[in-house]
Amino acid sequence: MSLLLPLLLRGAGGARGALRPCCRAASRRGLSSSSGGWAGVRPGRRSLLAGLAGAAAALAGLGLVRRAEMVSREAAAEEEDELSRRCGDFMAPPVSGLRELRSRRQDMRSRMEMLIMETQSQVCRALAQVDRGAAFTVDRWERKEGGGGISCVLQDGNVFEKAGVNVSVVFGHLSEEAAQQMKSRGKTLKTKNGKLPFCAMGVSSVIHPKNPHVPTIHFNYRYFEIENADGTKQWWFGGGTDLTPTYLNEEDAVHFHKTLKEACDQHNPELYPKYKKWCDDYFYIKHRGERRGIGGIFFDDLDSPSKEEVFQFVQSCAKAIVPCYVPIVKKHAHDSFTPEEKLWQQLRRGRYVEFNLVYDRGTKFGLATPGSRIESILMSLPLTARWQYMHTPPEKSREAEILEVLRNPKDWVH
After folding, report:
1. The model's pTM
2. Tell me: the pLDDT tens digits for 94-146?
3. Helix (H) or strand (E) holding 11
4. What is the distance between the alpha carbons of residues 339 and 346, in angstroms, rounded to a whole number?
């Protein structure tokens, strides 16, 4: 600014010393609007005053620019403080690190990582509160091929036998087996020298309660990005939330599905029925002729209408996890149960294990990805399960009631 003023004054046709006479002349003659403003000033001094006016305007403009820069810096600092505050509520520091997230804060990879970290924290804190004093083991791990994750596991609690909430953020090159799985789902993948760079991130959880009257819940929300040989990128989201009760409680089923429907309806009323059917079809144990549970929502390979719109939808679904499940847990956590009911729970958990090891895409992808952490992949399995030869429940029993729903899915909300 100190260099700008003399240059502007010299450009107006006068030296810096001409400022005082000009001001005195202007003072003597006056610049009233009735006299035409500039009318009483001699031409040379008019030029100088015009230069001064231009200088003042330029300085004012420079001040505005500097103020704008200051506001911009302050806004950036506030954003960084907000990012730090959000990260401070996580179960552990983010996988990618705060500096990396700041450097690409508007990138979908960063936004999705923040969402899955927040979801992990919200769910773990809600479950710990219900379990009254039980603590999660927080295990941070790294994958030598790229990335890592944070596993939060509660075992042998007061309410939960096993509750795991896992976050993973991995990158590298897809294995041939993993790429083949994606091709089988219609993905067109263009490799370079046989390699396919990718990044994948998600939050995944299975919660197995002790009481057979409290259902098991599973949820998973994930984002995939693949770089083709020509530099173009393919991206998609996937996920869902589903419920597996040991015994049917229609009031709970309605609450669960209604909460998920409300989350879907914020974006499009056609989503819930579509993803509810997809869920029923996906969690089908073909060799048993049964669904794993009473469903929920499920979607995969979602890449339209736009990346932002799909992300907002996924965010709504993630926020619905605690309200769709925790009220059911609180309602039944202290219900009494018999040894026979506990036995039925163990048999149903056997079905859960069968689905996860034989059909589940996430399990299959994890096992096919080099450097995957097996403990995190198999976190979904219960501590206890049972297989009993040729077990058939009595007709019209509560056990037979849930089997009927698993074989013939119902519409719980309309």
Report:
1. 0.78
2. 988 888 888 888 899 999 999 999 999 999 999 999 998 789 999 999 988 89
3. helix 4-11
4. 11
Catalytically annotated residues: 218
Best CA proximity match to 294, nearest among 267, 263, 325: 325
User: Of 2.20.25.110, 3.30.1360.120, 3.10.310.10, 3.40.1500.10, which CATH number belongs to 108-407?
Assistant: 3.40.1500.10
Where residue 169 falls (left for φ over 0; alpha for ψ -120 to 50; beta otherwise) is beta
Helix (H, G, I), strand (E, B) or coil at 285: strand
**Rg (the chain; Cα; Å):** 32
Over residues 198-249, the pLDDT tens digits come to 999 999 999 999 999 999 999 999 999 988 878 888 899 999 999 999 999 9
Query: Position of tokens 């219609």?
Result: 186
Tokens 């603590």 -> residue? 135
- Token readout for 379 is 């976190």
Tokens of 72: 């911009």
Token digits of residue 222: 């994930």
Report the C-alpha gap between 42 and 26 in whole angstroms: 10
